[in-house]
Specification:
It is built from 27 helices and eight strands. The protein has 575 residues and is mainly alpha-helical.
């Protein structure tokens, strides 16, 4: 934080506006594909500083008060921020240091939470817990989606909550129990307020077996006193009061979001792509393969599933192990994989809450459960693979994986790359199979591999010079300080539509995380195009002559274009 280190790709603003190079970069490069971070969420966080971190912001969505907390998920000066730990830095230190805090505390939080959670399921094996934490933190899913949609907060709060729940059941100290309950309440609130069901649903499924397992493991330790009950009631009342306050303040926003065409009422019942599902090697190397169009949507939790299947087979059939945690986890694995591979009937999707997610988001996270299963088996197995047997299995698995990858991606996997990949994955699979015999090798190989595939995703930069020294932003601020008024961004897209708000200037067509129906009803009085603008949307404007009709066009599920007249601009008092 002293050096304002962060991993934002906000330098892309420099490149797009054409004024400066990608300033502030210390290592790596900005990723333009992560526009939801550098062009939307980070600019909105910076816009909050100009708004003094108020709960509502009238500089966006056409000048209407906009709820910045519940859906936008931005820093606010409000007691509610107790459930948004990663944003405390903004309120305390401002945008530049706050952005650094946001990136650093989430990295440390996920690493430490994963370490403690793995310590719980590996019976306090520190080496395995460390390596498992490295795998989780540097998995492509985490790194590509690091700053958006609350995935980090979900995983941190779920793991911390379960670790403390286990501690609560084991403890006999009233003080310790009370502290555990208090932090668990914060974790529950944090998870709920990520407000992104597409990941909340599969992540909740992933951790259900561990909740049940903790209760079963501690069933003989459970001892509840009257003082515990009183403390629980007090904490529950405080928690309920805080959550009620948030939901009352943001109820209109919640309803507006749930009633949107996208994503509120979206129900996807399609099955996932087998090509993506089994493309293990290509998906794991997305950080260094430049020919993948959208690496974000193909990113995975690095679970090494081919070798997990081998160890699982040995664990069940050779050792004849029966572990209730692994059994329950496998049930959830089957549920998640079945959802991805087969189209689910709508009634079943709604009954299981899968109607609130879609196959792409499930695919990106279900590997986390495989990681937990792998490390549980490594910690509890007794069987040791013979050296030659492990080599043969590793070679066969690697060749099969590369052949599949080459079949689906012939232009990416050339002969040279194929040979190199067979060598790399043979080493990786071998180190996992021999993890208990060759611990140093396992530690070194997996750590280096994860640093390569995850550490290369986001840049390492210092500060936010791309914003502070941007000529266009400075000019907007200068003009608005002399004569404030409504700004409209014409014939232009991201990030420009979100730039005026960053310096506190009112913007007509900034990205709208939840719709402003009243705003667009002014030029669509018959609500003819409401299905188009009733959504999360990036809003582009094209000017047309006054004699032409005002129309709305859907360019993508989250992008709309408005063909707007000069008279429309006057109606919005655009200066």
């Amino acid at each position: 934080m002293i050096f304002q280190i962060n991993g934002s790709s906000i330098g892309c603003i420099d490149e797009v506006t054409g004024y400066n190079a990608d300033s502030g970069i210390l290592m790596g490069s900005s990723k333009s594909i992560r526009s939801d971070e550098w062009a939307v969420s980070t600019p909105m966080a910076i816009a909050q500083e100009a708004n003094d971190y108020k709960y509502t912001n009238s500089n966006i969505r056409g000048g209407y008060d906009s709820d910045m907390f519940i859906v936008y998920g931005q820093p606010v000066k409000d007691i509610s921020i107790i459930f948004r730990f990663s944003q405390w830095g903004y309120v305390l230190f401002g945008s530049s240091v706050g952005l650094s805090f946001f990136w650093c505390v989430r990295f440390l939080g996920l690493f430490l939470a994963s370490f403690e959670f793995l310590m719980l399921i590996t019976k306090k094996n520190k080496m395995l817990s460390f390596v498992g934490s490295v795998i989780i933190v540097f998995s492509p899913t985490i790194q590509w989606w690091y700053a958006t949609n609350g995935l980090m907060e979900m995983l941190i709060s779920a793991q911390v909550g379960l670790v403390l729940f286990d501690k609560y059941l084991k403890s006999e100290s009233f003080k310790e129990k009370t502290i555990c309950m208090s932090i668990i309440a914060i974790c529950v609130g944090t998870f709920i307020l990520t407000f992104y069901p597409a990941w909340m649903v599969p992540v909740a499924y992933i951790f259900v077996p561990f909740l049940i397992w903790i209760i079963i493991e501690n069933r003989k330790n459970i001892h509840i006193t009257k003082k515990d009950i009183i403390a629980f009631i007090v904490i529950l009342l405080v928690f309920a009061g805080l959550m009620a306050r948030i939901f009352i303040k943001s109820w209109d926003t919640i309803l507006a979001t749930l009633n949107t065409v996208y994503p509120g009422k979206r129900v996807l019942l399609e099955k996932g792509s087998p090509k993506v599902y089994i493309g293990f090697i290509v998906n794991s190397l997305l950080t260094i393969l430049t020919s993948i169009a959208n690496p974000c949507d193909m990113a995975v939790m690095m679970d090494f599933w081919p070798v997990v299947l081998v160890i699982l087979a040995v664990y069940i059939f050779k050792e004849k192990k029966s572990d209730i945690l692994i059994t329950m986890s496998l049930v959830v694995v089957l549920i998640l994989h079945a959802y991805y591979l087969f189209a689910m009937p709508e009634w079943l999707a709604k009954a299981t809450l899968f109607s609130r997610t879609w196959y792409g988001r499930v695919y990106q996270v279900f590997g986390l459960l495989n990681i937990f299963i792998l490390f549980r088996m490594l910690a509890t197995r007794e069987f040791k693979f013979k050296n030659k047997f492990a080599i043969v299995i590793s070679v066969v698995l690697s060749v099969l994986c590369v052949l599949v990858a080459k079949y689906y991606h012939p232009l990416v996997i050339t002969k040279v790359i194929a040979v190199v990949l067979v060598g790399i994955f043979t080493l990786i699979f071998y180190s996992i199979l021999m993890a208990n015999q060759k611990k140093k090798m396992f530690f070194t190989v997996i750590t280096i591999f994860m640093l390569v595939i995850g550490g290369l995703v986001n840049p390492v930069r210092s500060g936010i010079a791309a914003v502070e020294n941007n000529t266009l932003l400075n000019k907007i601020e200068e003009i608005d300080s002399k004569e404030s008024g409504m700004w409209a961004l014409i014939e232009i897209g991201l990030p420009e539509i979100n730039m005026p708000m960053m310096v506190g200037a009112k913007t007509l067509n900034s990205s709208s995380v939840y719709p402003n129906l009243d705003l667009w009803h002014k030029i669509d009085e018959e609500h003819k195009y409401e299905d188009i603008y009733n959504r999360y949307a990036h809003i582009f404007i094209t000017l047309v002559p006054n004699e032409e009709e005002t129309t709305f066009e859907l360019l993508a599920p989250d992008v709309i274009r408005i063909f707007m007249t000069y008279e429309d601009l006057k109606a919005y008092k655009v200066k």
